[in-house]
Design a protein that fits this description.
Elements: H1 11-23, H2 30-42, H3 54-65, H4 68-79, H5 84-89
Length: 96
Amino acid sequence: MYQSDIDPWYRPFFENARKAVGRTETSAPPDEIARLVAEIIGAPRPKARYPVGRGMKAMSLFIRLAPPRVREWVFGKYYGIRDFKEANRYGTGSAG
């Protein structure tokens, strides 16, 4: 998606998301991913998702354990969304 294709109202959300992605841990080491792929191939009933890397494992645990309002607050801070109620009015948030 090109920046010129973005509705001006959504542009700040898009830019904040782009910055947040840049801050995210890039990836797990290749040998860790290779070990996991070998485990998945050998699994009789593989899971739907496999978080790889310390950051993703922590995020997966946080998503499972944190209440929805806490998750929204944390993600809002991370992605630079000040007020989910305001964003929800325009269909970009989930709290209300």
